Amino acid sequence: MQQCAENCGDCIRTIVYVWLPEEVVSSHSGGFIVFRLSRQFIASIGGAIVIGLSLSMANAESTPDDTPPSHWAADIFAKAIRDDTAISDQNEWSDLSARAYAGSPRSDAAAVRWLPEPMPAVDGINGKIAGFGGGAEHSNGFYGTAGSLAFPLAQQWGAQIDGGVGSLDGSGWSHGAGHLFWRDPSIGLVGAYGSYFHWNGVSPSTIPRIGVDVSRFAAEGEYYWTRWTARGLAGYETARLNVPNVAGLAGLSVPNRFFDSISASYYVTDNFELSIGHLYSFGRHGLTLGGEYGFALGGGRMASLFATALFAEGGTNAVLGGLRFYFGQRDKTLIDRHRQDDPFDAFLQFIAPGTNAPKVVGETTDPALAPPRQAAEIQQVIN
Predict the structure, then answer these.
(1) Residues 81 and 186 in one domain
(2) Is 25 a residue whose pLDDT tops 50?
(3) What is the largest CA-CA distance in the chain?
(4) Neighbours of 337 (CB within 10 A)
(5) What are the backbone dihedrals phi and psi of residue 213, each rounded to the nearest 5 degrees, phi first?
(6) Which domain holds residue 83?
(7) Per-residue pLDDT band at 87 (split at 50, 70, 90)
(8) At what angle are helices 69-103 and 39-60 packed, to 10 degrees?
(9) Domain tally, the chain
(10) pLDDT for res 308
(11) Cα dihedral sign for 68, 71, 73, 74?
(12) Which residue has better confidence, 203 or 329?
């Protein structure tokens, strides 16, 4: 037993010197080794020595005499050192990884919070077409058809083109407009608007036809709040008279003016809208009232009945109604179509003031400048 302990002691001293890194060993002489070790290494070595001595005495009785004690003692001690070092390295690496992740931007709760991506400005290519008719004071009535086509340009950018043709006071008219806008369907819309309107005009018996061209350039916006939608269109309005070459009628013009169309809409249901607004055009203020009721047709289509009324200064009162069809990428309610597909087209609000165009022409015409017979005809236009 004493011989075994002595052999084991020699073996341990040899193994410690062999297995420990060189920088750990400070000096050795006379069979003694001096270490500069961390507390973890000291604890590991002490535990390994105790385990080695215990196993050496336990196995001294069962191990064959021809197996040198130094061999199995060296294996036991080396395994203990390797396992403890591996566990220590693994723990240190885990701690380092945890600290690195904790210090990275990804671990910040605000940084990893995913926000939903806004819906696109336009939910795919879509359009609408409407047929309408109505009447007004100082007018023989009007009717026509109008349509719009909207399409996406980018995630939050879209465009729309409008067009229409019809008859006003028995004379043809045509209309075109364009919208370029940014929109978030959960917030609202901001964009630019431009339009052109041509009316062939009136033709009294002794005066050639006097046509009108109206151009509008404006900023437009919409704001969505629960079932409410606020809309605004404000800009510059120009009008040009196509005056025939008749004595006393040359040089007629209509002054350029500011114009606006502002309204607030409330959706009683997802498919039923009521609106009230203010219109200023051709130098006259007016109150607008409107409504639209939609019903789904399936296949991304919807039909709706709509009506608009205008009560304006100068006795320009008008009302129109019609049937509209929507075409889109998928079935959706009226409120969703208005906020996700095509923006509002204010043209139908301007067609009613167009019935007052004869008065606009009359304002620029002084009957005293015309020959008597033609002056009477001009006065008829004014009235």
Answers:
(1) no
(2) no
(3) 149
(4) 20
(5) -120, 125
(6) 2-107
(7) very low
(8) 150
(9) 2
(10) 92
(11) positive
(12) 329
